[in-house]
Amino acid sequence: MSVASETVDWLTDSANWSGDEGIPHRLLEHVYYTGLAVGIAALVAVPLGLWIGHTGRFRNVAILVTGSMRALPTLGVLSLVAIYSGIGLTAPLVALIVLAIPPLLAGAYSGIESVDPRTVDAARAMGMTEWQVLLRVEVPLALPLLVGGVRSAVLQVVATATVAAYISLGGLGRYLIDGLAIRDYPQMLGGSVLVIGLALVLDGVFASIQHLALGERSRVEAARRT
Amino acid sequence: MIEFTSVSKTFPDGTQAVEDFSLVLPSRTTTVFVGSSGCGKTTLLRMVNRMVEPTSGSIAIDDADIASRNPVELRRSIGYVMQHAGLLPHRKVIDNVATVLLLNGVPKKEAHRRSAEMMEIVGLDPSLAGRYPSQLSGGQQQRVGVARGLVTDPNILLMDEPFGAVDPIVRAELQQELLRLQRDLDKTIVFVTHDIDEAFLLGDQVVILQKGGRIAQVGSPADILAKPANDFVRNFVGLDRGKRTLRIQQHEGRSIVVDETGKATGVLAE
Amino acid sequence: MTWFLDNFAYVWELTVKHLVLSVIPLVVGFVVALPIGWFASRHRRLRGSVLSVGSLIYTIPSLPLFLVLPSIMGTKILDPLNVIVALSLYAAAVMVRSASDAFDSVPAEVLDASKATGFSEARSFFRVQLPLAGPVLLAGLRVVSVSTVSLVSIGALVGVSSLGSLFTDGSRRDFGTEIIIGIIGVVLIALVLDTLLVLAARLLMPWRSVVRSSGRSV
Question: Using the beta-carbon criterion (under 8 Å), do B100 and A221 form an inter-chain contact?
């Protein structure tokens, strides 16, 4: 039997679809870690990014930090955090949060920066308070880039959570790491297919949200441009 | 009445935009600040609604110093129309017009009703209400800007080169429209432009500014043409180039008005 | 520090491997993406589909791709070729978009002028379009370079050695120093490659300053 058909067998074997090591449970774990990490990162990064974008303060620092954090090898960060905080959910979660921050931060501040300063000036001149300028003008107009930041953060974390299985995190990455370790190639490939599928589906979902975030106005603008 | 008393403004980068500027802008008239770029005209305008804070001196509206007023409330009580209209691209036209009403807590239905009325007053077709700003022509956007500035029925309307970005034909149309509106509404208008013809057309009081917000001359268009204060003014309004010096010539039995160079510019009414 | 000095030869060997595994995909990705990007910028209708395929490839997480490629290409799991092919795919996927944007950024009047002054199509490409597209191409290359250098280390999980091996090894032995040295090494390689790219750009395009943009890293 070829590896491909064995992989299909592994994916369709009902034994792999139940229990704590079953596909649904692993999938949920993966989505849970991703949601948790991106959620916590967003609580920090989005308000900070909005503030940087609105005030223009610490912009250069933000660019420098997000830029250099991108150069950090995720595997290295994971391994290091794991050593110092031991086995458990904390270590990989901390690493995932750290890695989700740069795209979220960049999405937030570049989103606000992308708003035409004349529009912001007009809003202020009409008598909007700073909060109203931010919430009624800047954030709605920054939404596409903001969601874009969430989208890249999610994909980043889905990928890194897979890698994190090697420091004993659950989720779909388990199939890849365990399958590789015991040379169970159908399990390894089946897991890989699932991770790829999850990434593509999530990307599709966020692409749609991004499209919605553009709103009717920008669809009109886009239609006029072409 | 708006009164500037010894107002100066130095920006953080050291630019002295306005130096010791004093002037009274009478109520229910149009005062036009005119000058080249860098003369501080926009800075002066933006100090009226505290978008720019003076470094020294004071500005009073009806004898009350605006420095003691909450800037946000002050801005909501003053209409503001800017170049490129400054419309919110993510809001429909009707919501753009209604913005300040909604900020002031007017119920949405009432705000929309009054906005629709105002759109009609400034000559906008009601069918445009549901469009987004990007779907309008430049002239239409500028009309929306004017409607937005007027919808709360403010006593004061600030206009910062509002017609600077539209083509000459539309500009002429909008200028006439503003004259008509002003006849009906009687606002205190502060208007900024670099176009002396626009200033003479719209202004009851024209303020010609030199660098640093120094007043070269204040007066009605007729005052300025009749008695230009100095060479700067003469040059700025075009008296030295013969464009404003007109003579009558007889031609085919009618009185033709020609300028200094002999170019025909009109016919004398008989 | 003593560990580093004792194992200098080993770290150096891994650094060279890491560098090779980074540079090959960069070059391959660039060479593959350039014509595709040029084509996409010229044919607006194909542009959408070409770019979607690119972003689809880019969406695939790296570890599963390393593991799936062997059964598609018939290679062994441990073969460095898997990593090279996967990273070349990513590099090409990003560079196609950059290249297409880059050629779009060449002003139409300049193209017109070069045609009017008698440049042949090929001459116009090499003498006019490519140099003018340079700054945007460079911005793309810098993004790809940083993410590729970081991604090479993931290969260590499937047994392809690079500085990433210091991460897996250090993690197995609970030895932080080794991991930190690995991280420093990876960041240094990224920094050196980036500096080389910027220097090369100054040399090749003395008339323009450098454009920046951003990307991902796993």
Answer: no
Whether residue B81 is found in the same domain as residue B125: yes
Query: What CATH number does the domain containing A202 carry?
Result: 1.10.3720.10
Nearest by CB to C183, which of A80, A84, A176? A80
Instruction: Supply the range of the domain harboring residue B223.
Output: 2-242
Helix-, strand-, coil-residue percentages of chain B, each rounded to 5: 40, 30, 30
pLDDT band at C105 (very low <50, low <70, confident <90, very high): confident
Among residues 126-185 of chain A, which lie with CB inside 8 Å of chain C? 152, 155-156, 158-160, 162-163, 166-167, 173, 176-177, 180, 185
Note the ipTM here: 0.82
Burial class for A12, CB neighbours closer than 10 Å (0-12, 13-18, 19+): exposed
- Give CA–CA dist C4/B25, Å, rounded: 78
How many domains is chain B partitioned into structurally?
2
Q: Distance from A148 to chain C by nearest Cα, in Å?
A: 12
For residue B266, give every residue at least 6 positions away whose Cβ sits within 8 Å of its Cβ, in sequence order, or none.
Answer: B256, B257
Taking CA atoms, what residue in B is nearest to A139?
B90
196-225 of A, contacting B, C-beta below 8 A: 215-217, 220-221, 224
Q: What is the pTM of this model?
A: 0.81
Copy the structure tokens of residue C121.
Answer: 């199509």
Cβ contacts of C71 on chain A, cutoff 8 Å: 3-4, 185, 189
Answer yes or no: are the C-beta atoms of A121 and A196 closer than 8 Å.
Answer: no
What would the pLDDT profile of A36-89 be if each residue is shown by its tens digit?
999 999 999 999 999 999 988 888 888 888 877 778 888 888 888 888 876 677
CATH number at residue B63: 3.40.50.300
DSSP for residue B124: -
Same domain (yes/no): B117, B36: yes
A90 Cβ partners below 8 Å, 6+ apart? none
3-class DSSP state of B160 = strand
C-chain residue closest to A103, CA distance: C216
